[in-house]
Amino acid sequence: MRRRTARLTTARTTAFTSAFTTAGKPGRLRLLTGIGRGRAAACAATVIALSAALLGPAVPAGAAEPADGDHCQGQCSDILPPGANGNATLVEILANKAFGTHPAHSDDELGKYDALVAGQSSLTDDKLNSFFNDASFGVPNGQAESTTSPRPDVTITRDKATGVPHIKGTTRYGTEYGAGYAAGQDRLWLMDLFRHIGRGELTSFAGGALANQGLEQEFWPQAPYTEADLQAQVDRIRTANGARGEQAMADAQAYVDGINAYAKKSKDGRYFPGEYVLTGKIDAITNVGEIQPFKLTDLIALASVVGGLFGGGGGGEVQAALSLQAAQAKYGVAEGTKVWESFRERNDPESVLTVHDGTSFPYAGKPADAQGAAMPDPGTVVPEQLVYDRTGSANTNAKADVKVPQKLKPLKGVYDNGVLPGVDLGKPRGMSNALLVSGSHTASGSPVAVFGPQTGYFAPQLLMLQEIQGPGISARGASFAGVGMYVQLGRGQDYAWSATSAGQDIMDTYAVELCQDATHYLFRGVCTPMEKLEKTNSWKPTVADNTAAGSYRMQVWRTNYGIVTARATVGGKPVAYTSLRSTYRHDADSIIGFQMMNDPSYVKDAKTFQEAAQHVDYTFNWFYADSRTAAYYNSGLNPVRNPNVDPSLPVKADRAYEWQGFDPAYNTATYTPPAQHPQSIGQDYYVSWNNKQAKDYSTAGFGDGSVHRANLLDDRVKALVAQGGVTRSSLTRAMAQAAVTDLRGEDVLPELLKVLRSSPVTDPQLVTAVQQLEAWQTDGSQRRETSQGSHTYTHPDAVRLMDAWWPLLVEAEFRPGLGDPLYKALTTNLGIDEAPSAGHGPTGSHAGSAFQYGWWSYADKDLRTVLGEPVRGPLARAYCGDGKLTACRDSLLGTLKQAAAKTPAQVYPGDAGCGAGDQWCADSIVQRPLGGITQSAINWQNRPTYQQVVEFPSHR
């Protein structure tokens, strides 16, 4: 089904003015107009309410108020595989390797999560908790498995069913201390791992495996900081955000204190995570060694990892410039620019929109008369060198012959392929999905939501589940381990919320003109030295990582316009290309927004939730549901650019082309006000799968056009809304069906078959292939088992054909017309495929997330053009068969014949966990081990990792 029309007029929030007064200090007025870094806190009445909340929980009003303050009344569910417990002692790790046993609650969610693939077809509301868990507040009588009180003012109760920590404090400090203590119980090793990733110190901490080197080399240049830089972020949050900023850092300190208390207790009691022994941090016999205490600056480092992975957007302007130049070289400047813009798809009229009522939110569009572009001279771009002074295995990748005690031999080399094998933190991520239907279209009259973040699959997960109840906090849900002072995605007393990565453009590339030498540049007319940031790492072999001893030094140059990423000449003058993102030096500022979301005295309805989301700097799509309203808000620190600057291309580092109000001291600028961010209250339905947010809100990357994986949701939810009477189970079923559907099969294969059937197919081999594809398409284009546990797809030959055919047909369709240089440049901007079994996407193999980045929109538009069908926003030229149907058909048949000749083993060559030709296994999801515990593979599902199903029947 092609693009959608407007349904309902959206009620939208506007910028608001607020002031606050802190005790003993004069009030300061702040306008939420996006000017500078000033954040509105709350009006005086809100501060009074906040102060009261910090002293004790608000007393609910109304005779119908539930005794426990839980308005979901059993209609909130959630799940986070593989299990709540992410720590394992050395003995438990050894048992897992020897006998396949698992620590309690480390894998008890995996089966439920996996079973939805087979169970969705017969799903009812009564059966939901066969596949999810009850997300009610508290622990039912008789269902407490353990209760811990690390301080007199807090208890941590874990339920028998899942082992999730339910933290209840009588003071604010105790509550947050308990949250930190519980985080230590569940994710101590993972938090330690990720604080070192954030600091660029992974190899020194976990070993010099080649994958570890690559991981820190990808991430650290994106967020390089000194210790003083990290401390400055802590200080700025505390001093620049009034009462909430002070409270946030007090909460963070209490959280850190709780982590450290558990770390010390587990070390002294010898029940700490076994990975500390395997990596040489603690001696298993003498217990000599240390778990380095956490500090507030570690939380900033952790936040930079989370934000960098899931909350960024933009960048890649130099590569975009290179593909534009290739198009202009092929077709001439005018025609080449037209061709390039058609592939760029900044504002494609056929793209699926989250705000689909026609409301326009212009941002980062193409100016009518672009100025200041800094296009590189042909052949001059050279990426900036990062690594210097390699020694030992940093040059050779040699392994050492590590002498290992007999009992530890099963664990020898468990990290030889790195601590996050197959994960590339440097590649873009845009994951997570959301489906919400407003009450006017549901059976109950209340909104229904099925939503969650798609954060990859790890053992343990990056997220952890928790419930936090204390003064000023009342929430249950998921938080990224190590920054879990507040629930980041979950539910409150009478509302629930979630997010998807938005990815709008908050990063720009500047061309700084060099002066004096290669490490000086012109800043506002003054020759200014670049700042050198360095990180030296060294390692030695351990039981876990047998990589021989080695070391190297990472080095980047920092300018007022960001980090140097490449060198080139522009107009014959030497320049350095730099990358500047608006959230650099502000990686943890979003803590204020999360604090508000957890505060029942602040969030009372959709509008106040949107106001809380305005305090989140990272680029996220926020979704909200209570008993009355469904709503949406797009957050992000969107810089206000010169209206004549094209944000898709590198720009000259001239004051005229800087962000408006730019101050390099703290990397602050003028930002678009809240009213200019896509938002809506009460639309008939909302879907998001990292698609385009709204009309004229330009996409930051390539490929957001007529076919996007969000169509898999939009088509299904639209049909449910038209039918009416939507329930939790019917909306969950729509999500689950989309999760096993091949996007190419549903939205591009129909056009492919039309072309193929435009004349009779006579070759017997091709007749069979076409029939197999048609049967699969008719049956829903799904990649699902014949029955639960069969590990055989219902249409295995058609699935194999599509996997083999797609890369062949795309190349045959586009490469001849584009020519090699332009085709290569455009495939660098956007990969052609991201099938579940592919290992070349940003998430790698066995990662679940699929069909986000690919050429399906290009193929769809081109094929419809060749077929003579209407296309809004077509490609500038026809490519398949040079626009001739007969030649296009011949090309497709030729590549289909090649695909049909490929054996299963050629299409699915196998890996460490899968035999060659094993289709189900090639697709399957593997929880990548971040520690010593491994998990079984499960069915492929393109689905959120943590997911909620909610429907509130009442409200405060």
Question: How would you concisely characterize the structure shown here?
Answer:
By secondary structure, the chain is an alpha+beta fold. It is 32% helix and 18% strand. It has a ten-stranded mixed sheet with strand order 5-6-7-14-15-16-17-25-26-28, with helices on one face. Strands 9, 10, 18, 19, 20, 21, 22, 23, 24 and 27 form a ten-stranded mixed sheet that branches.
Description:
This protein is an alpha+beta fold and 956 residues long. The strands form 6 sheets. A 10-stranded mixed beta sheet has the order 5-6-7-14-15-16-17-25-26-28, with helices on one face. Strands 9, 10, 18, 19, 20, 21, 22, 23, 24 and 27 form a 10-stranded mixed beta sheet that branches. A hairpin with an 8-residue loop joins strand 15 and strand 16. Helix 11 packs across helix 12 (333-344). The protein is globular.
Care to count the β-strands? 32
SSE-based structural type? alpha+beta
User: What is the overall shape?
Assistant: globular
**Average residue pLDDT:** 92
Alpha-carbon distance between the two ends: 40 Å
What is the alpha-carbon Rg in Å?
Answer: 27 Å
Unreliable segments of 5+ consecutive residues: 1-63
Physical arrangement of strands within the biggest beta sheet: 5-6-7-14-15-16-17-25-26-28
Helix content: 25-40%
Major sheet characteristics: 10 strands, mixed
Beta-strand content bin: 15-25%
Number of helices, where a helix is a run of at least 4 consecutive DSSP H or I residues: 26
